[in-house]
Design brief:
alpha/beta, FAD/NAD(P)-binding domain, 2 domains, four-stranded parallel β-sheet, 11 helices, 25% strand
């Protein structure tokens, strides 16, 4: 993403950028810099941790109301009974021990001209630099009949926690031979291969507990991440159980009738299911919009080099909330962006302790508990635009033997544990 397409009026009007530019010539001493981080997920917690690791003298506060984070990676295992919720829980004890101040409140607003954040108790906290990592929120207005209240009966389970358990309960209660419908939104959304891993693990559950059941995927897209690998796995492991309808087959859901358990698609087709897992379209977390940082897409445009927000000074936006294509919205991408943003922030404070950090992504997807596929790539900024480095893409082979799929399943768990520890420390 580049900020070049934004007009001067967009950059200045209502955003208080000019007063901040007047202060740009004064370099803060690192010991007096106050850094606020909003959001305690893979991006925010990693940024707070790394700042304190590299420069213990920095004043770093993490604004995150939750005591525990339940990760979206491995949450599909919880839904299908392969893991318990506490196995994907991570806390903030180690960050506090490092000197990060954990403020257990929600951030209500950001005053970017005044460089301050309002907490839910009404108090304002001043900052010299803000790292915003609010994750996603849902565009409930995109599907008729679906809102936050209805999601308590028709789960999305795209934020791990109670929704994961709700979908697990509904899956277990399915009538023999019933149909489960998984609705997938158009890009961009959190974790592009995630719905198809979910379909794989649900099919694994059904093949053992409800073998006559069907799984229908209604997809707003014409194609999806790792498509050939997923479909090969489905044909081998769950023949005849999974049906995928893409956009050309009228797979884009536009309306939900929660009473009838029915989904209506763009061109009029209707589908009924005993269980509906409706993943709605998404946008950046609400605080990004209230801060005036989002564009018409609902996401936050950022500079490719350091993830500085295009629409405010001294604000960096990382993780799922930012526009960083071709980097996917993934846990590994979020952690990688945190390193790049911290490197850029330290450089602003006169330190090259991290130097230029790489931008990369690694993503594992389970086909079954003992079989996985993966994709990996590295990214670089060229003329202000992010692009995939030539020759960096690594994708599992369609011709790989099952032993290789089993090795990747073991690697997936090792990757998850390593990334979690690098973000929060030891599991909760």
């Amino acid at each position: 993403m580049s900020c070049r397409g934004l007009t001067r009026r967009q950059l200045v009007a209502g955003l208080g950028l000019l007063p901040c530019l007047a202060l740009a010539g004064r370099r803060l001493a690192r010991g007096e810099a106050r850094v606020l981080v909003i959001g305690g997920g893979f991006a925010g917690a990693a940024a707070a941790r790394l700042l304190k690791q590299v420069d213990p003298g920095l004043h770093v506060s993490l604004i995150e109301p939750r005591a525990l984070i339940h990760t979206c990676p491995r949450s599909n295992h919880v839904i299908t009974g392969l893991a318990q919720l506490d196995e994907i829980a991570w806390g903030f004890d180690e960050l506090r021990e490092m000197g990060v101040s954990h403020i257990r409140q929600a951030a209500l607003d950001v005053d970017t001209p005044g460089r301050r954040v309002q907490l839910e108790d009404g108090h304002w906290l001043a900052y010299d630099w803000l790292i915003l990592a609010p994750g996603i929120d849902f565009r409930f207005d995109a599907i008729d009949g679906y809102d936050a209240a209805t999601a308590e009966r028709v789960p999305h389970a795209w934020k791990a926690g109670p929704q994961s358990l709700l979908l697990r309960q509904q899956l277990k209660a399915m009538a023999p031979g019933g149909t489960l419908i998984l609705s997938v939104p158009d890009n961009p959304y959190r974790c592009p291969p995630g719905p198809y891993e979910r379909a794989s693990l649900i099919a694994h559950y059904l093949s053992r507990h409800n073998p006559r059941a069907k799984l229908l995927i209604l997809d707003a897209k014409a194609s999806f991440s790792k498509q050939a690998l997923f479909r090969q796995g489905w044909e081998r492991l769950y023949p005849g159980m999974i049906e995928w309808l893409g956009h050309a087959d009228d797979g884009r859901v536009v309306r939900l009738d929660a009473v009838r358990g029915e989904l209506e698609c763009e061109f009029g087709s209707r589908h009924r299911g005993e269980v509906i897992n409706l993943i709605p379209p998404q946008r950046a977390g609400d605080i990004a919009r209230r801060a005036g940082l989002t564009d018409a897409s609902g996401w936050v445009p950022v500079e490719a080099d350091g993830f500085r927000a295009c629409l405010a000074s001294r604000v960096m936006v990382i993780g799922d909330a930012c526009l960083a294509a071709p980097m996917p919205k993934s846990a590994h991408s979020a952690h990688s962006q945190a390193r790049r943003a911290v490197s850029a922030l330290l450089a602003e404070l006169g330190s090259d302790a991290l130097g230029t950090t790489p931008l990369d992504n690694v993503c594992y997807s389970q086909l079954s508990p003992d079989s996985a596929i993966s994709i990996a790539a590295r990214y670089e900024s060229v003329a202000g635009q992010l692009q995939e480095q030539t020759g960096s893409l690594r994708l599992s082979s369609l011709a790989a033997p099952e032993a290789e799929r089993e090795r990747e399943a073991a690697q997936a768990l090792a990757w998850y544990q390593a990334l979690g520890r690098a973000t929060w420390g030891n599991p909760a």
